[in-house]
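Q: Hi! First time doing this. I have a protein sequence and I read that you can turn it into a structure. Is that right? Here it is:
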Amino acid sequence: MHGITKTFNIGTDNELTVLPGCDFTVLDGEFVSVVGASGSGKSTLMNIIGLLDYPTTGSYTFGGVDILRMPGDKLAEYRNHHIGFVFQNFNLIGRMSAARNVEMPMMYAGVGRKERARRAAELLDLVGMGDRISHNPNELSGGQKQRVAIARALANNPDLILADEPTGALDSVTGRLVMDIFHELNTREGKTIVLITHNPELAAETTRTVTMTDGRLDNGVMVP
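A: Yes, that's right. Below is the predicted 3D structure, encoded as structure tokens:
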């Protein structure tokens, strides 16, 4: 990302620039954290990284693809194949089992039913939820829901996992378990992870920390 800006309500009395110009590079296989106080612009940046919103100006290349030149009808398809999301509040579908929640991204990607079921079971086992495959979210604890959400994020074998405050709704013990899963995905599976957090202790666990202040990013500090 280079020179990324985001302005809301352009041309009105309520015009507000949240991102005045960001440069941000993530390499394949990195585990990067973006830290900053509430209101610093982290959520806006996350939405642009995750292809949920367009910047006002700037350039964004993802996997060699010029994102801002991509037609809108292709953007959702590209996002589904290349980015997995893990949110603070899980965003699971309550009336569906853990397996069906994990299958959803694959269904949108056109994966056949048998393969969806096979891969969902494999991914739930990977995150320690193989024995809860038929349980609905209301039958799961917060930590179990987040593990299902991580499995869902992995459904289409994405290039990037984008985690927005993934431990924010969890107690410290369960949050530790979730972070251990992220570390395993990064070191053993080679997954690229961008962690959005306000918690400097979590950020210190990643290989590079980038700080956001008033919509601007520093260059990041590599952890030796």
